[in-house]
Specification:
4 domains; about 475 residues; Uridine Diphospho-n-acetylenolpyruvylglucosamine Reductase, domain 3; Alpha-Beta Plaits; 5-stranded antiparallel sheet; Uridine Diphospho-n-acetylenolpyruvylglucosamine Reductase, domain 2; 7-stranded antiparallel sheet; 18 strands
Length: about 475
């Protein structure tokens, strides 16, 4: 990058907030996605919306790519600077700006850590439900850009259900304020919904107002173990069909159970083929009744054991075990590829079995966990990126998993986003007309293609599989 342009950026954010050494650039050349890496030209840490605006104006004039980045937990190569340019960090924009108890909202900068926000509002008797497994390190800005879910998504929804207002810097350097603390607003297009999950391809979000709800009075956790994956999946469907909507209904298969037990030593039975983590919150009477019914349903569906957590400490330990599933699995092989194929709840049993069959077919190691209550499964492939032949089998296995998910009425991603990794599959879900519509939106808002270029839109769509009789 020319020194004149670099000096322009330094004049905006200050020289101390510009990273340009080889080691610094390398640190921001990758995220949590395997096999994707590219060096940026510069890393900037602005302190407010106005500095972001000035950065974008320079990038617009010079046609320099901008990649917004939170904590780098992205699992679809969404924050890899594939086209070089600027990586925009929000480590200096990490403040909780306002807690409005009258309107039940909190306004934050994008660099606020999700768990820090959750703890802060709970200390004030309020509740922010979205809880991605990476919440200890992921940022609210990243959550909004990916429309992140979490363990509580079944009952409470995902990030988009809590965004009330956004401040956006547009690709030409304008500032737009969308939404507000009001309960109703149908003035014009719903632009916020377009930006949530937009993966930084349409602008830079610099301020976020989130909806809060009262903190539930009571919560209880149950756990059930099964000798059959199908029995666990059928239990999920039976719980929902009995009109119980738990706050959490999480699934782990045998491989994941073993990995978590190796990692945490919390007493999980390694011989179980599957486990369900069930949690409910609300008023005491309803929570007691729902947990009782869920445990009874699990037993009726064939659970070898279905019990209530003996204490809040045990419940917290079980939930922590589920949250660290990816970390635990990643210790087993050099490379971990986590996916999030999502299907209707009624198709969970078929999808779980299909994943197992595909793993056998291609002789690859796949462990599965996920948000069973909302159909969002995380088949996790344990492999070694240095083994080209094995990686070829892994890729064909993942192709088939995405294909089966779509055939079952599902999608290629429920919460991790498209990024660059899944871009070649997006047309499988949306079709050519859907892709053309999305390209039109991107072109109209970001005609110079400087906002996170190379993400969502693939150079080439992968050829759709043709599978006969499951072969």
């Amino acid at each position: 990058m020319e020194s004149e342009i670099k000096n322009s950026f330094k004049s905006v954010v200050g020289a101390e907030y510009v990273k340009d050494s080889k080691a610094q650039l390398f640190a921001y050349s990758y995220d949590a996605t395997a096999n994707f890496q590219a060096l940026p030209d510069l890393v900037l840490s602005p302190k407010n919306t106005e500095e972001v605006q000035e950065i974008v104006k320079i990038c617009d004039k010079e046609q320099i790519p901008i990649v917004p980045r939170g904590s780098g937990t992205n699992l679809a190569a969404g924050t890899v600077p594939t086209k070089g340019g600027i990586v925009l960090l929000f480590n200096n924009m990490n403040k909780i700006l306002e807690l409005d108890k009258e309107n039940l909202t909190v306004t934050v900068q994008p660099g606020v850590i999700t768990q820090d926000l959750s703890i802060y509002v709970e200390q004030n008797g309020l509740f922010y439900p979205p809880d991605p497994s990476s919440m200890k390190i992921s940022t609210i800005g990243g959550n909004v850009s990916e429309n992140s879910g979490g363990l509580r998504g079944l009952k409470y929804g995902v990030t988009k259900d809590y965004v009330k207002a956004l401040t956006l810097v547009t690709p030409d350097g304008g500032i737009v304020k969308l939404g507000g603390k009001l309960a109703k607003d149908v003035a014009g297009y719903d632009l916020m919904s377009l930006l949530i999950g937009g993966e930084g391809t349409l602008g830079i979000i610099t301020e976020i107002t989130l909806k809060l709800i009262p903190l539930p009075a009571v919560k209880k956790t149950g756990i059930a173990y099964f000798n059959s994956l199908e029995d666990a999946a059928k239990t999920v469907s039976a719980i929902i069909s009995n009109r119980i909507i738990p706050v959490t209904l999480e699934f782990m298969d045998k491989g994941t159970i073993g990995a978590v037990e190796d990692f945490m030593k919390i007493g999980l039975p390694r011989e179980a083929e599957a486990m369900l983590l069930m949690e409910q919150d609300g008023n005491k009477e309803q929570v007691d009744e729902d947990i009782r019914q869920m445990i009874a349903i699990a037993e009726e569906m064939g659970a070898t054991s279905a019990i209530l957590a003996a204490s809040e400490k045990e419940a917290a330990s079980l939930k922590a075990g589920r949250r660290v599933a990816l970390s635990a699995l990643s210790r087993k092989r050099p490379t971990t590829i986590l996916e999030d194929a999502t299907v209707p709840r009624s198709e969970i049993a078929k999808m779980v079995r299909a994943i197992q069959d595909i793993a056998l077919k291609y002789d690859v190691e796949i462990s599965t966990f996920g948000h069973a209550g909302d159909g969002n499964l995380h088949p996790t492939c344990l492999t070694d990126i240095r083994d080209r032949e094995e990686m070829d089998r892994v890729e064909r296995a993942l192709d088939e998993i995405f294909h089966i998910a779509i055939e079952l009425g599902g999608t290629i991603t429920g919460e991790h986003g498209v990024g660059e990794m899944k871009a070649p599959y997006l047309e499988w879900k949306l079709g050519a007309s859907g892709m053309n519509l999305m390209r039109s939106i991107k072109q109209s808002i970001d005609p110079k293609n400087i906002m996170n270029p190379g993400k969502i839109f693939a150079k080439e769509t992968k050829k759709r599989l043709v599978i006969h009789n499951g072969q």
